[in-house]
Each structure stands twice: as structure tokens, then as C-alpha cells.
Amino acid sequence: MSKKRLLSIVATISVALAGTAAALLPMTVSNAAEACVAAYNNSTVYTGSMRASYNGRNWTAKWWTQGEAPSTGGSGVWADNGACGGGTTPPPGGGTTCNYPNWAAGTFYPAGSIVKYTNGNYYRAKYENPGYDPIISTWFWEPFACNGGGGTTTPPPGGGSGSFPVSESQFNQMFPSRIPFYSYAGLIDAVKKYPAFTTTGSDTVKKQEAAAFLANVNHESGGLVYVEEINQANWPLYCDRSQSYGCPAGQNAYHGRGPIQLSWNFNYKAAGDALGIDLLNNPDRVKNEASIAYQTAVWYWMTQRGPGTMTPHDAMVNSRGFGETIRSINGSLECNGGNPAQVQSRIDAYNRFAGILGVSPGGNLSC
User: Fold this and answer.
1) How far apart are CA 73 and CA 120, in angstroms?
2) Whole-angstrom Cα distance, residue 213 to residue 259?
3) pLDDT for the residue 132
4) If you average pLDDT over residues 291-304, what whole number do you get?
5) Per-residue pLDDT, 43
6) What domain count does the chain have?
7) Which residue range is the domain that position 241 belongs to?
8) Does residue 95 surpass a pLDDT of 80?
9) Quick one: which of 139, 308, 75, 315 has its CA closest to 215?
10) Does residue 98 lie in a domain region?
11) How many other C-beta atoms lie within 10 A of the C-beta of residue 161?
12) 43-87: per-residue pLDDT in tens?
């Protein structure tokens, strides 16, 4: 074979191999992050398919939202479109973003491990633990502010989440026997769903509404101790077969769960539709995910009149008094002399919580 022919074959093979190698290499240019879209604005109303950039990533809203910063947790309203602005995410130790692993339930974590939780925040293990939920097991995990170089540990804000008028220490004082599931962090994540919750009116009204909400929660959940209705004999009773959608999760699936004991298939559907979560088919999410449990309680508080004449939120911000919140939650069984002991239990908690917040309870306490 001539030298010229041999060189031609070698050149052909080299080109082919180069093409194969190029196909196997990461497409760093074509797969580069897209440019960041307009930055997220806390006061802007976002509807389905609207986009925003936040913390170096682009996000798309799945449905209506306002005041809920983009993350993979919370109500699930945001879809993560990936890093934006070009380049790739650097490993810990450099740059402006973090690359710590995602938290995985049941995975053993040595003390000092840092993970990214489903809400988009970072947490560091204070002790070795077998993968307990960072939001629920607050004694095993602590918040971790990550800036790419490791950051510093930052304690939770003492005054709630911006506008929520109850600090974590006050919350713990109100609920000394609460179970870990009912975490303060879960509550703070949930209240973002309804920006008007405890933010309407004067500082006095805001604190009164927070105290009223938590007092009713205290009564319904036994001091944030019970996640599910205790009397299992009642569980089959909450399936209304007259509804067109029926009870796809089963006859026993729609019993009381969460801080205000969400019950009945039609309430699970209504709450799920409002929150953008399929609770009709997955009602156990209310007992398994702290933020969702609290979200159902805030949803009821903000949108449902129940047996009353107004929502509990409207009752507090319009100075109708704590008694009207009782009427809206369980008035058909407790008000007008129906069960004065239960009413008094709620009033006692409200007075105590108002005292912790340093605010007058106001009038019209009973129903």
C-alpha cells in the first residue's frame, strides 16, 4: 500500500474517532445555562407558565401564586428550569452557588453533613442521624446559609417569616407538647400561600388573628399532638358518594388530618384544587408533609365559612371577635349552647396566646 493511501485511511479514521469523541463529551457550549429571565418579585402575581429567575435559576409558575419565593418545596407551585446566566454550577468551595447533595429520606448522615432539602434550602446535620426530615427533626438539623464556599450557619428568624407575627420561641411556648411533625418551619412555609394571612390591619389585629388561628389549631389537634382523627370508627363516615368524583382513595381515606382536622372527600378536593395539590387521590400527604398539613388549615381559615357566616380571617380583621371564628370552624356543634366546655377551651387558649404575643384579645370571645 502506498504511503499516500495509508495517510488517507489514517486521516479518515481520525476524523471518525474525533466525531465519536465529540459525541461522548459534555456539550458544554450547547448545554450552557440559558440567560436569566426577569428577577422574581415578591409582590408580583404570577400565573401558569409565567417565568422568573431566583437565586441563579430560572423558574416557571404552574398556577397562580404571589409571595411564595421559587423553590422545589412549599406548595409545589414552581417548576425548576435549571441554572441561568451561563456556565455550570461549581462544587462547594468556589463561586456563588452550591452543589451539596439533595437530602434523601432514610439515608444515614454523619454529623456535619450538608444537604439541599426539597424546599431549596440547605441544612447541616448537628448529630449523626438516619435521614430524618430536616424540617421536622429540627434537633438533628440546623439551617445552613450556603454561598458556594460553605457559608455560615444562620438561625431561623426570631420574628417568624417576615410578616408572620409569632416568633419560633413564642410558638414553642404556645405548644410545649407539640410533636416534631408540627414544626415551626412547616408553618412558616405554609403561610406564604396566602399573603393576607396575619398581615391585614393594624399590628394588634395581625397578632389577634395569629393568636385566634393558633388557638383553634390548639383545640383541634390537642396542642399540635394529633395528626389524624383518634376515633378510627368514624373514618368510613367521611366519604360522600353523591359527589361525582367519589372517593378514589378509599372509603376510610377522608377522615380528619392536620392542624384543623381536614375531613370529607369534598373538602380534600376543594383544598387540593386551591393549593394545587391532588389531595383527593393522595389524602395522606396531609399527615406526611408538615407544610401541606398547615396549608390545609390556612386554606380553611382564609376561604371557608363552614357553619358560620364568614371566614375566620374575615371575622378577625373585621373585628367580629374570636367567637365568630369558633362558629365558622365548629359552630353547628359548639355554639349557641351546644358545647360550652369546648368553646371555653378555645377561648382559654386564645387568651393565653394573646398574652404571649402581648396583645389584648378584644371582645366577642364566645359564640
Assistant:
1) 6
2) 10
3) 75
4) 95
5) 63
6) 4
7) 232-286
8) no
9) 315
10) yes
11) 16
12) 676 766 778 888 788 888 776 676 777 887 666 778 888 888 743
What span, in angstroms and rounded, lies between the C-alpha atoms of 314 and 344?
Answer: 21
Contacts of 230 (CB under 8 A, 6+ apart): none
Q: How many helices (H) and strands (E) does the chain have?
A: 10, 6
Q: What contacts 138, CB < 8 A, 6 or more positions away? A: 180, 183, 184, 185
CATH number at residue 45: 2.10.10.20
Q: What are the phi and psi torsion angles at 265 (to 5°)?
A: -60, -35
Q: Tell me, yes or no, whether 42 lies in a domain.
A: yes
Catalytic positions = 220
pLDDT tens-digit series, residues 150-194: 333 333 333 334 479 999 999 999 999 999 999 999 999 899 889
Compute how many other C-beta atoms are within 10 angstroms of the C-beta atom of residue 18: 10
- The answer on pLDDT for 305 being more than 50 is yes
| Confidence class for position 1, pLDDT limits 50, 70, 90 | very low
Q: Which three cell numbers stand for residue 36?
A: 436569566
Give me the torsion for CA of 185, 189, 190, 196, rounded to 10°: 120
Query: Is the torsion defined by CA of 319, 321, 324, 328 positive or negative?
Result: positive
Q: List strands edge to edge, sheet with 51-54.
A: 51-54, 57-61, 78-83
Instruction: Report residue 356: phi and psi, to 5°.
Output: -65, -35
Separation of alpha carbons 179 and 182, rounded Å: 6
- Asked if 33 and 52 touch (Cβ cutoff 8 Å), the reply is no
